[in-house]
Amino acid sequence: MSVYKNNNLVKLCIMGDGGVGKTAVTIQFISNHFVHYYDPTIEDSYRKQCVIDDQVYMLDVLDTAGQDELTAMRDQWIRSCEGFILVYSVTSRSSFDQIAFFKEQIYRVLDSEDVPIMMIGNKSDLENERQVTYQEGKDLARCFGMSFMEVSAKNRSNIEEVFNETVRCVKRREELQNKDKPKDRNDIKKKNSIIKKLNQKVNNTKNSICKMM
After folding, report:
1. Strands 55-64 and 43-52
2. Which terminus has fewer CB within 10 Å in the chain: N or C?
3. Cα(31)–Cα(4) distance, rounded to whole angstroms?
4. What are the b/e assignments for 85-121, b being 16+ CB within 10 Å?
């Protein structure tokens, strides 16, 4: 019987413009199967147990809609997940341009820019139809502070790697957050004292600037 701890349950959300292959990427990862037809998704949830870096994880993968008329549902999807995979198609410049929109929506809903996000360019097998270069994708991801890969849902290129790396990003963030948490009341008091002193310095600086004006 497979055993995994509650903290090894990782909830991931797949987001991107309509028709970029979010469902194809998800089903290829879950079932080793390529979906040839396009059927607009509203919301589908999948679960898969996998081993990443010798650790057993249970992944909950939420495949979301890309259609504009369903954007109101995205806030709820975003709040329910820990890590995000933003998908564009290398054959669609407009879907690439939409990545910034999805990123900003995640930041807004979670009220944070410290979010584990993987950006992927799907359909890398359609080289003759390419509208977005690999370097453009890499540069945008670096600008946004995201990890990046090009993938092909059709031939399964980099599919496993995308999900594995996204889980690693989630876990690294958790480790950093736990490391920064105060361990006891004395630590909390010390941290509060430091924050209070910093706030006093900021206020004093502001007052000095106001007097000079």
Report:
1. antiparallel
2. N
3. 21
4. bbbbbbbbeebbebbeebbeebeeeeeeeebbbbbbb
The burial class, CB within 10 Å (0-12 / 13-18 / 19+), for 130 is: middle
Buried b (16+ CB within 10 A) or exposed e, 132-147: beeeebeebbeebebb
pLDDT of residue 206: 38
Strand 147-150 and strand 117-122: pairing?
parallel
The ranges of the chain with pLDDT < 50 are 1-4, 42, 69, 202-203, 205-213
- Strand-pair category, 55-64 with 117-122: unpaired
At residue 108, the pLDDT reads 93
Q: For residue 117, list its beta bridge partners.
A: 84
Q: How confident is the model at residue 185, as a pLDDT? A: 57
Please list, in sequence order, all residues whose beta carbon lies within 8 angstroms of the beta carbon of residue 167, skipping any fewer than 6 positions away.
10, 12, 52, 57, 59, 83
Task: Give the global pTM.
Answer: 0.78
Instruction: Confirm if 28 and 61 have CB atoms less than 8 A apart.
Output: no
CA distance 2 to 21: 31
Which residues pair with residue 89 across a beta bridge? 122
Of all residues in the chain, what percent are helix, strand and coil, respectively (each to 5)? 50, 20, 30
Question: What spatial distance separates the first Cα and last Cα of the chain, rounded to whole Å?
Answer: 71
